[in-house]
Design goal:
The complex is a heterodimer. Chain A is α+β, with helices and mostly antiparallel strands. Helices cover 40% and strands 14% of the residues of chain A. In chain A, helix 1 packs across helix 15 and helix 18 packs across helix 20. Chain B is an alpha+beta fold. In chain B, 52% of the residues lie in helices and 21% in strands. In chain B, the strands form 2 sheets. A 3-stranded antiparallel β-sheet of chain B has the order 2-4-3, with helices on one face. A two-stranded antiparallel ribbon of chain B has the order 1-5. In chain B, strand 3 and strand 4 form a beta hairpin. Chain B is elongated and about 60 Å long. Classes of the chains: A alpha+beta, B alpha+beta.
Chain lengths: 574, 168
């Protein structure tokens, strides 16, 4: 990593040296976004490799929960002599108050990641503000704010089971893969927290989303500790802890709604960086000769994926494939891999085979191939830092902007233009915890309250105007005459990133938010995509990952061999 | 008086929403929000200036001034010194973000004149592009100012109950 290089330049240079990148028309197509899977460069996995590489240590510093799991718990990362505390407040809500939606008023778990030492004054402030979530005010010692609930189905069952000296029945709890479910990881200056921009370059959390995932790691740890603590108090001497098969199986659940969608359409530089990391890795692997060692590793990952999905359910996951539906797909992949034999360009051929299949098959192959990639993580960290320029160069002419528009947005014509279909929804922020939602235009008028992610529609209108404007006129003149085009002009000029734009119209009647959400969630490292409507879904994070007790063993925490865990066997011994 | 600390992006979001509710297009609202943050980051009462301009219905003057600076930038980048008349004058602080943005593209302010803290003219010339990164330090507001910001920005939000009713 070269800290002196301009932001974005290292990523641009890396892309320039890969001639076999997939085109944006493939990568950013909605159906491909909606098939994305986690890779070894997802945030969760990058975090744990960083923990190992940099020698982070972790401890449970304080744990004061009652027999129902209510109280306070504090976990601490120590990174190069700097402490970061995850401070959690827990209580039990009546089941009727459980909701996955961001708009809930009450949560069973609320927590914050705090930089530096804790004192009584700060703790008192956290006790007051953290449970209030969006209604609280924090200060810049706080880096992340999060919350969630226990799984109503599983928490008490797991406590009872361990209290009785038994291990869980995989047929009862294996399908969800989590004990607690989070809903948001706020950071970057929200509610008074520290801005991402203020992290000095050597700060451990100067990499995008690293702080959020450092908090999520402890959130998951809290879920395990809470169950075992309650079981111990309930079962006494009979109680046991999770055995080796179960102690890693559960991840942290997450419920995700529409909030991700405006982010995807408003941050082209970020989308580009995320997609680029994956595409660079894929391009490299496709070009790698298939040595026996690499082929054996690939075969191992295919088999691992098969075992993992075979342990899942056949629940309806439309528009995605359920775990059960993925199994025959993996069998096809395994068969194709066998038929290709021992050719030296096996990885390229396997990818080309997959490209012609169902998007879920293609993206599954992509994620499996990327397991063979081995980039320098610090270089990948540098690629993820972006400069989100919003400025408009006033010297541009109409002709220049039109050329940019045609070159950067050739896909506009692939979208439906009929206003009734293309402009059916507008995006809104609800007054309840500021949850983004979408609303039919024919049922409520925006009146200046719309979140401006109607990019495709704005660009189309701009193009119509530019087509009838002299090319040598300055674009400033057009913006003066048509103020409503200013947003689109800015977007055309600043959207210089090939993978920056989801090739979709967020306001269209047929727009499917789940597709954009899945791309983002996959990059976070989420898996087990379980849609609950067209607008929100449940996922799992860190399933199979090492635990706090493994942090001191770099070979374990950094092994990066934990994704796609097998369902524990029935009657695993305690 | 209790202070409230806001991250620049939080102040930006508030100002953007307020401008949108006041009728500004997303791009104009974004320019105004940048202006408010630019003023606040330089130690001025950015939110207070913003409210005064909104309440006196002179907020469009800021957009006109920023537009004039953009036009001056075009001239300056052709190699000449550009004289920009800011008429009507606007608070100096509200132009800081636009001037910083011009610097990123290689045009700097070499002179300016102002009356009672309001810029009346700016002289621009080309320079080496300076990619100054905006400060992310927390901005201090009085509790009253913050409450006003929150109140005005809340008009951008739509009632959850009304949204739910549409689903029925």
């Amino acid at each position: 990593m070269n800290p002196a290089a301009p932001i974005g330049s290292q990523l641009a240079a890396a892309l320039d040296t890969r001639p076999n990148l997939r085109p944006p028309s493939t990568v950013m197509a909605p159906e491909m976004l909606g098939a994305a899977r986690l890779t070894r460069y997802s945030f969760s996995r990058m975090l744990l490799r960083t923990v190992a590489r940099e020698g982070w240590t972790a401890e449970r510093a304080h744990f004061d929960l009652d027999e129902r799991g209510q109280g306070e718990a504090i976990y601490c990362w120590e990174i190069d002599g700097r402490p970061f505390h995850f401070v959690a407040f827990t209580r039990v809500l009546d089941e009727s108050l459980h909701t996955d939606r961001v708009v809930a008023d009450e949560w069973e778990i609320s927590a914050a990641l705090v930089e530096g030492m804790l004192d009584h004054v700060l703790l008192e402030s956290l006790r007051h503000n953290v449970p209030r979530q969006e209604k609280g005010r924090l200060d810049d010692r706080v880096l992340v704010l999060t919350r969630g609930n226990r799984s109503v189905r599983f928490f008490d069952y797991l406590v009872d089971t361990l209290a009785n000296g038994e291990q869980p029945d995989p047929t009862l709890v294996g399908d969800a893969g989590y004990i607690m479910r989070s809903t948001a990881f706020y950071g970057n200056g929200k509610f008074g927290m520290r801005s991402f921009d203020t992290y000095e370059p050597e700060h451990p959390f100067a990499i995008p989303y690293r702080a959020q995932f450092a908090a999520a790691f402890f959130f998951r740890e809290l879920s395990y500790d809470s169950v075992e603590h309650c079981a111990r108090l309930r079962g006494g001497d009979r109680a046991v802890e999770f055995d080796d098969e179960w102690r890693r199986f559960f991840g942290l659940g997450n419920a995700t709604g529409l909030g991700l969608v405006p982010y995807a359409f408003n941050h082209p530089a970020v989308m580009h960086a995320w997609a680029s990391v994956r595409e660079i890795a894929l391009a490299d692997v496709r070009a790698m000769p298939a040595t026996p060692e690499l082929v054996a590793r690939l075969d191992g990952w295919i088999e691992r994926a098969r075992v993992h999905f075979a342990g899942g359910t056949d629940d309806d996951c439309t528009p995605f494939l359920s775990p059960a539906e993925l199994v025959p797909l993996i069998d096809e992949i395994a068969a194709a891999r066998s038929e290709l034999g021992e050719v030296s360009d096996l990885f390229e051929r396997l990818y080309l085979w997959a490209e012609e299949r169902h998007p879920e098959a293609a993206e599954l192959v992509v994620s499996l191939l990327i397991e063979l990639h081995d980039a320098d993580d610090t270089e990948v960290d540098a690629w993820l830092s972006v400069d989100e320029d919003r400025g408009l160069d006033p010297t541009l002419t109409v002709g220049e902007v039109r050329e940019l528009l045609d070159r950067r947005f050739p896909w506009l014509d692939d979208l439906r233009a009929d206003a009734a279909l293309a402009d059916a929804y507008w995006w809104v922020v609800s007054d309840n915890n500021e949850e983004p939602r979408r609303v039919r235009r024919d049922r409520m008028a925006p009146e200046g309250r719309d979140v401006a992610i109607d990019i495709a529609n704005r660009l189309r209108r701009l193009r119509s105007t530019l087509e009838t404007t002299a090319p040598d006129r300055q674009i400033l003149d057009v913006v003066r005459e048509h103020a409503d085009h200013a947003h689109a002009v800015r977007r055309v000029v600043t959207s210089r990133h090939p993978y920056g734009e989801p090739r979709d119209n967020a306001c269209a009647l047929e727009f499917l938010p789940l597709q954009t959400q899945r791309f983002q969630l996959a990059f976070y490292g989420m898996d087990n995509f379980k849609p609950k409507s067209t607008d929100w879904l449940r996922v799992t994070l860190f399933q199979g990952a090492p635990r706090l007790a493994d942090v001191d063993a770099p070979a374990v925490i950094g092994a990066d061999d934990w994704v796609l865990p097998a369902l524990p066997s029935a009657g695993s011994s305690s | 008086m209790t202070a409230v600390y806001l991250a620049p992006r939080e102040l930006y979001d508030y100002a953007l929403r307020i401008a949108r509710v006041d009728g500004f297009d997303p791009a104009a609202a974004s320019i105004l929000a940048d202006a408010v943050v630019g003023a606040a980051a330089a130690g001025h009462d950015g939110a207070g200036l913003f409210f005064d301009l909104l309440d006196s219905t002179t907020i469009c003057d800021v957009l006109l001034a920023i537009d004039a600076i953009a036009a001056g930038e075009v001239e300056a980048r052709s190699g000449v010194t550009a004289s920009v008349v800011v008429d009507p004058p606007v608070p100096d602080a509200m132009l800081l973000a636009a001037l910083a943005e011009a610097e990123r593209r290689g045009v700097e302010r070499i002179a300016s004149s102002s009356v009672d803290g309001r810029t009346t003219a700016v002289t621009l010339a080309s320079c080496e592009p300076r990619a100054t990164r905006a400060s992310g330090r927390a901005l201090e507001l009085t509790a009253e100012r913050y409450a006003e910001l929150d109140r005005r920005a809340s008009l951008f939000l739509v009632s959850e109950a009304a949204l739910d009713a549409l689903l029925d």
